[in-house]
Amino acid sequence: MSKSQLPAPASKLTNRYQQGQLVEIEIADLTDTGEGVGRVGELVVFVPDTVTGDRVKVRLVQVKSGYATGKLEELLARSQHRIRPNCIVADKCGGCQWQHVNYQYQLAAKEERVRQALERIGGFSNLTIDRILTGTRDELPQFLGYRNKATYPVGISAAGQVQAGYYQKSTHKLVNLNQCPVQDPRLNPLLKEVKEDIHWRDWPIYDEQKHTGELRHLSLRIGRRTGEMLLTLIVRTGDLTGIAPQAADWLKRYPQLVGVCVNVNSAKTNAIFGGETRCIAGRSYLREEFAGLEFQLGADTFFQVNTEAAEALLEVIAGELNLQGTEMLVDAYCGIGTFTLPLAKRVKMAVGLEVQAEAIAQAQLNAKLNNLTNVAFQVGKVEKLLPQLDVVPEILLLDPPRKGCDRTVLETIKQIQPNRIVYVSCKPATLARDLKFLCENGDYKLVRVQPADFFPQTSHVECAAFLVR
After folding, report:
1. Is 14 helix (H, G, I), strand (E, B) or coil?
2. Class assignment of domain 3-77?
3. For a Cys-Cys bond, which of 138, 164, 361, 422 suits 152, CB 3.0-4.6 Å?
């Protein structure tokens, strides 16, 4: 459920319930943003940090016409789905939403979210939705320690200590971390000790209000299979006294660290990375193995943060397509070729389309690294490149951003009529909307949906939808 799906309420509810009022609620469901939802009378109340089955005392924070948001004040009765969080700051940190939710129930909730979106928004019925995929490690579901990349804002405490962590929920108040249970545990020593070195170096910390200081973010990345690590400091101007000897010391101290970089972001913006990255010591990339291929990943390269889950979804895609080596495949929104390159090994020809020139350059490099000569990449907007292709793909892979496909892309697909479509999505609502358009009038048939848990401990869910003409 989301706020946009609520029925039109009676305005008298606004007068009956007031901001600051305490109410008792039983949590009946979870929303698509991860909050618990329940009712007091006819008023729908959204409450973070709760789970289906909780009985809670809630303070109303904001009251609208027909719904309210609340803050958990007291847990009156625990849900069977509630567990003790694995993180000591789970009640403060905004990095995770569902540390308090049993993992099996997280998976069930995500499956249900996909189903509800496809039924309510897409208008589909009698759906085949497979059991949600999880990343596995040592044959066990990987719901902690899975993230291969973490980027932390940097701050300064009242006592003058350098801090790094995630922002407290709905604020810009930093929650200091020395370890994080969802990031690869091999990164934890860097998180703690690099902060101490930054403090010792007395590098000025960025002040987002005044737009002064230097150090804005700390970015850590690891190759899950290779163990190689990359450390990047995001700074305002790049003026860090003593950065070269400090970078050399880090490389010596951490044998798995292969490079230290500085990324310059001088803009007054919420965007983390700027356009310029300099390698200070070692190399500017790490090596990773994915689906039997070698990839080079730079400081700001987009790559799925859950390596194992991404591989599991890729295997399902390849299996469903039953590739024979004769197919022509187009991968729209291909990024650095994460899916394009492994699939290129199984088809006659693959073409990747991507608007970011840097990503295409990385994809071409990775294709060359793996001696893949049957794949080509083009830079530009998918809505412009797709109609200009001189071939009709038998298979079209779509992996758009959260907002989904541009309407002109969907219209072009209907015109060029690829035989099969695989639509990979990180937002069930926009997936359902786009599938509804593609399947209307019988142009395509939705045959299967495969959810995948790329982001355990959060409400986010990835899925692949398979369509045929």
Report:
1. helix
2. mainly beta
3. 164
